[in-house]
Every structure is written in C-alpha cells, then in structure tokens.
Amino acid sequence: MFHPYQLLAGFVFGTIGWGIWRYGRSLDRWKPKVIGVALMGYPYLITNVIWLWVIGVALLVLFFFQHDD
Fold first, then answer.
1. Rounded CA separation 7/25 (Å)
2. pLDDT by residue (tens digit) across 1-17?
3. What is the pTM of this model?
4. DSSP labels for 15-32?
5. Distance CA 62, CA 14 (A)
6. Helix, strand, coil tally for the chain in percent (to 5)
7. Scanning 10, 19, 24, 39, which has the fewest C-beta atoms within 10 Å of its C-beta?
8. Are 14 and 39 in contact (CB under 8 A)?
9. What gap in Å lies between CA 5 and CA 68, rounded to an integer?
10. Which keywords has UniProt assigned to this entry (predicted)?
11. Helices vs strands, H then E, count in the chain
12. Mean pLDDT, the chain, whole residue set
C-alpha cells in the first residue's frame, strides 16, 4: 500500500529529475544526466517516506553544487 506522501515524492522528484536529465542532455554533461536518472529511479527502490524525501533533497543539493570543470 502506498502512502500519499510517497506518491507525491515520486511525482515531484521524478519530474524534477526529468528536467535535470534534459538539462544535462542539452549541454552534453554527464553529471546532471546521472543525477536526473537517479532522481527519476530511486523512488522505486525506497519504501520509507522520510528516507525518500531526505535522499531526494540530498540529490537536489548535489545537483546545485555540482560543477563541471
């Protein structure tokens, strides 16, 4: 049985992950593409709602601070 916040987190982070993946694809950068795929895929693997949100926010912070030199 899915928790409503689990479905919300999957939708939010999946949508943001798709946008980050498209951003990385348009610039031909591997780091945003990997972070985007991770954001789209990890909600299928995590069942705890709190860890779902913590990992999603951590991946977004990682994307914010990633730099391609």
1. 26
2. 678 899 999 999 999 99
3. 0.88
4. HHHHHHHHHHHHHT-HHH
5. 16
6. 80, 0, 20
7. 19
8. yes
9. 33
10. Membrane, Transmembrane, Transmembrane helix
11. 3, 0
12. 92
